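Reminder to self: C-alpha cells first, then the designed residues, so the page reads top to bottom the way the pipeline ran.
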C-alpha cells in the first residue's frame, strides 16, 4: 500500500504545470495557440482547456479515498438546513456558468443556437 503524506505538493505542481502556460499566453508572454483563433484544431484546444478540470476531479476522487480521514464526510454529515443553501449556491453556479456563451464558440454554432 502506498502512503504518501505530502500529496498536496504533487497536486499543486500538476495544476501549476497545467495553468502556467495558459496564464503566460493570456499575458502575451508566449504564443502557444490555446485560443481557437490561433489553433484550428478544436480537439487540441478543448483538450488543453479542460485538462485542469479533469485534474480537479482526480484530486477529489483521491481525497474521497483517503484511509485516515475522509474530509468530504463532513459535508455528508451536515444538517439538512446547511445543505440546502450550499446546493442552491452550487446550482446557481452551474446554471450561470452553463448558460455562458463566448463569441468563439458562437461562431462555430448554427446561427439560431447563439444568444444575442
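Designed residues (116 positions):
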Amino acid at each position: 500500500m502506498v502512503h504518501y503524506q505530502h500529496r498536496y505538493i504533487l497536486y499543486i505542481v500538476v495544476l501549476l504545470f497545467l495553468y502556467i502556460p495558459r496564464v503566460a499566453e493570456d499575458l502575451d508572454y508566449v504564443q502557444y495557440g490555446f485560443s481557437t483563433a490561433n489553433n484550428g484544431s478544436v480537439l487540441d484546444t478543448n483538450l488543453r482547456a479542460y485538462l485542469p478540470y479533469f485534474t480537479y476531479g482526480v484530486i477529489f476522487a483521491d481525497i474521497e479515498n483517503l484511509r485516515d480521514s475522509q474530509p468530504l464526510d463532513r459535508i455528508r454529515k451536515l444538517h439538512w438546513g446547511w445543505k440546502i443553501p450550499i446546493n442552491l449556491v452550487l446550482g446557481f453556479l452551474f446554471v450561470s456558468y452553463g448558460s455562458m456563451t463566448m463569441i468563439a464558440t458562437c461562431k462555430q454554432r448554427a446561427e439560431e443556437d447563439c444568444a444575442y
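The chain has two domains: 1-70, 78-116.
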